[in-house]
Amino acid sequence: MSEIVYIEKMAYGGSGIGKLPGGKVIFVDGAYPGELVEVDVLSEKSDYAIGNLEKIVEKIPERRTAKCPYFRNCGGCNFLDLKYEKQLEFKKMVFMDQLERIAELKLNDLYIEKSPKEYEYRLKMEYSILNDYSFGFKMKNSHKVVSVKNCIIAPKVFGKILEKLSLTLSHFKIPIYNFKRKKGLLKHVILRYSPSGEVMLIFVTKSEYFKEGKKIASLIKKEFPFIKSIVHVMNSNDKIVLRGPYKVLSGDGVINYEFSWEKFQVPPTAFFQNNFHVAEKMVEFLTKKLDLNGNEIVLDLFSGLGTFSLRLAALSKFVIAVESSHVSVKAGRANANINGLKNIKFIEADALDYLNQVKEKFDVIVLDPPRAGIGPEAIKKILELSPQKIGYVSCNPTTFARDLKLLLEKYEIEDIRIFDMFPQTYHIESVAILSRKNNL
Ligand SMILES: C[S@@+](CC[C@H](N)C(=O)[O-])C[C@H]1O[C@@H](n2cnc3c(N)ncnc32)[C@H](O)[C@@H]1O
């Protein structure tokens, strides 16, 4: 059944939102706010419907031709057919809408820090491998993989490396892992890039047995000497792409990043922010806005390998960095050493477990949780610890709004900003600086 729908808003996730003639809300992928579209109603629930975009009757002038031939087939990008400024405007709209609906907080305006690079910005790409030894990405809402020669948001050099790798893997007839039948060996290939020009190549296999690994590594290294490290990660878990013990096949097993202030060594399985220039701006914003005077005790929850912790340590008295990944904690300690910072302690722990037993008081708490946010139990503990300031870094506006609503009982927003870490996609990264209300 076809309907004509006016798209009023955008949902977090990138779909356009409109109303069917009866008033029921409908989500339409690929349609933008301000457009009149013809949709095929695919499914209807009691309170909303899902529609397929059939035809754009009236389009917004900010539409453009996507520079990528895989767009709408590959599940990676959402907005390649939309001018960058308009992407930012829509992200702002989505973020403010989430805060208003979930946290009951109405922002009058919001600053967005743009990404200096619209394309080729991603530092880490995780590739699926097809049986013909080509590489690609999952389609949206599907396990099917679309083969992609050159991804427009990845560093250009990745395409060249993959071309050679495809021939090499095929030459050695490396069995590609079949996720349905749970047979085969090679699950993923991952490339990490540093603006210094270094590259790290990672093979993720189902089992330990990868006897051709060293030979393949040496052939690839010969062709691309700038590949500083080649690593073999063994991961039997099919739900998570990059996790597990690893062996270094070539090089020293780390990739180096250098911000204006600190240097970081990143091991293959540790988290590192994906857009270098935006990450640096985000660290600068958070640490400056916390207005540290050198006497504070700071807790950095979900610290990773110290992206925020090191700068916080340079500006305060002492930092406790809490992180659950063993590899990241080890890297964090090494990074503190490399940067000559002694006033920082990395603790390997689950954030909630740590909060449940901590006795110390903190002047400042910084938190940068995964997409699930931090949750009511941990927020309750933070409210009890009652730091003067909180810096909340979020990669999911929905869970951020849920957590923020609870924090607003005792805190007020001093500053809040979006950092466009992921141009062309619906993802929204934000930083909020909260300060304790005077009388609490
Ligand atoms: C979004 S990353 C942020 C890392 C770091 N702040 C940075 O900017 O590089 C989230 C981090 O939280 C860690 N993590 C995930 N769940 C955790 C938990 N329950 N307790 C502690 N750390 C956790 C992950 O290993 C990851 O390093």
The CATH topology of the largest domain? Rossmann fold
CATH superfamily of the largest domain: Vaccinia Virus protein VP39
Give the CATH level 1 class of the largest domain. Answer: Alpha Beta
Number of strands: 22
Quaternary status of these chains?
Answer: single chain
Architecture of the largest domain, according to CATH?
3-Layer(aba) Sandwich
Regions with little confidence, pLDDT below 50 for 5+ residues: none
Q: Specify the helix fraction band.
A: 10-25%
The figure for the number of domains is: 3
Q: Which ligands does the model contain, each kind named once?
A: S-adenosylmethionine
Largest sheet data: 8 strands, mixed
The structure class reads: alpha/beta
**Helical run tally:** 9
Q: Give the mean pLDDT.
A: 96
Family: Belongs to the class I-like SAM-binding methyltransferase superfamily. RNA M5U methyltransferase family.
InterPro entries: MeTrfase_TrmA_CS, NA-bd_OB-fold, SAM-dependent_MTases_sf, TRAM_dom, U5_MeTrfase_fam
Pfam family, one: TRAM
GO biological process, one term: rRNA base methylation
